[in-house]
Amino acid sequence: MSNVTVTTWSLEQTAPADLLPAIAPDGDVRIVRAEVPSPEFSRFLYASVGGDIRWTDRLGWTYAQWQEALDRPGVETWVAYDRGTPAGYVELDAQDDGVVEIMYFGLIPAFRGRRIGGHLLSYGAARAWDLADRWPGRAETKRVWLHTCSKDGEHAMDNYLRRGFKLFDTKVEEEPEVATPGPWPGARAV
């Protein structure tokens, strides 16, 4: 098995005013919180969004591992729907001292390039900033952060920067090259 060089960038916002929202896309695009933790649904989103860009770290998780991750206080999944069809999601993870990580964010391949991503990221970052309002006892959010890497979509970094995230760390590492797990070849809209 060969290795591939992967660059990982960490970005952050340190105040709600840092967020530069995108314009909402045309059409019937809605963003809804999946309030019932569902390992099946979360695994579907994870595999559907990340299958073509080699998201593999959670693919081997058991049902119990998914349930445990989703049941943690301050974990939220927000799903974008285009005319009733899941188009992508953002997963928030409340951490200590008022820090919220955008753990996962992305669109199913057929929905990329429609201006849904900027809108979903804007909405997800706003929900990270007001997360304590929905979780009594959580500290008010003081920082929202995420990481992206050279394996992610070609427009990912630009989207983060346009939404007001600032780069604070860069790492370059060698990783084993893994096959794209799916969902299947050619799963893009025409």
From TrEMBL:
**Taxonomy, superkingdom:** Bacteria
N-acetyltransferase domain ranges (all copies): 29-190
Q: Name one Pfam family in it.
A: Acetyltransf_1
Q: Tell me which Gene3D superfamilies the record gives.
A: 3.40.630.30
- Which InterPro entries does the UniProt entry name for this protein? Acyl_CoA_acyltransferase, GNAT_dom
Lineage from the top down? Answer: Bacteria, Bacillati, Actinomycetota, Actinomycetes, Kitasatosporales
Species for this entry: Streptomyces siamensis
Protein name, per record: GNAT family N-acetyltransferase
